Amino acid sequence: MSVFRVSVIRGDGIGPVVVREAIRVLEAVGDRFGLSFQFVDAPAGDAVQAETGEALPRESLQRIRGSDACLKGPVGETARDVIVLLRRELDLYANLRPAKTMKGIPSRYGNVDLLIVRENVEDVYRGVEDVGRDHAVSLAVYTRHGTERIARVACREALKRRRKVTVVDKANVLLSHRFFREVASEVIRSHGGIQLEFMYVDNAAYQLVVRPERFDVILTTNMFGDILSDEAAGVCGTLGVAPSANVGDAFGLFEPVHGSAPDIDPERANPTAMVLAGAMMLRWLGETKGVEAALRAAGAVERAVELVLAEGKVRTVDLGGGSIAREFCDAVIARLQD
Ligand code: NAI
Ligand code: MG
Q1: Which residues line ligand 1 (CB under 6 A)?
Q2: Is the pTM of this model over 0.85?
């Protein structure tokens, strides 16, 4: 029996509900595949800040560091002090954000299957900022090291897929983006066997809406990746099903693309994105720790989710149904197969 120690940030708003449901699915799939999880709470977010004065207490950071992986629900207004900081602190330099049309999810498009590879620790999110009464500066920082390693991740992912990478930037206006494009393209060309194209971000935003099927891997900077991944989720139907992986060389943190959705009843949230983030975690644990059962468990969760969505009997509000998060995950658990 493989035991994984998973730190858990339940977060704010819909966070605690979708995390609770994702954990139920993980425990059920673990039982089937001989995996056991030790979930360790690492409180962080708006509520924790209100209570303790700190959005990410030291103790939580230590628990995360001491775990094999972190499962994170969305936090609210403290996103900067929690997730942006964690990405930097743990050097989770790659953010992988798949967007796929799925049966049962209404979308205007046919066959979208793309992956946004977002650089995750540089750019204007680096935190090099200065604000005075009459000025505000957020410095966009790109390094050769940071650009090369994210380009290598894009290549690695493209080779598992349709072998095409679109580098998205604003190189026509920003010298720093000309640098990003040049450094990234050197890496991609040196890999060979990968079709490389370039696109300015404004056109990419447009192409995502008019012809999203054309994309395979989109390699882009931190802020553009943040924005384009919500857009890609909308193109595929709903933010409620979009998962993401924040990975570095030594650690992985898995969360939905969406935020805490303060405008909806938490029990009525779509837990799919969080559940699929759990599946990404299983796959990453399987690959990095060499545990075959975790890879199979990841596939089982994904297939069960796809089945329940395709059947369309249990649908959350964002998909036009009336089911609550718990009912959706009950259906997923009932559909788990080896
Ligand atoms: P949001 O992603 O929370 O919500 C955008 C829209 O999508 C809303 O209409 C919401 O109801 C809907 N939505 C999102 N997830 C859903 C789900 N699972 N099921 C059904 N509907 C869903 O973005 P917003 O409103 O801009 O941000 C809300 C808060 O979340 C902010 O405080 C923001 O800072 C935080 N946030 C945190 C993130 C993180 O922890 N990584 C990421 C993005 C935002
Ligand atoms: Mg975002």
Answers
A1: 14, 74-77, 79, 83, 239-240, 255, 258-264, 269-270, 273, 318
A2: yes
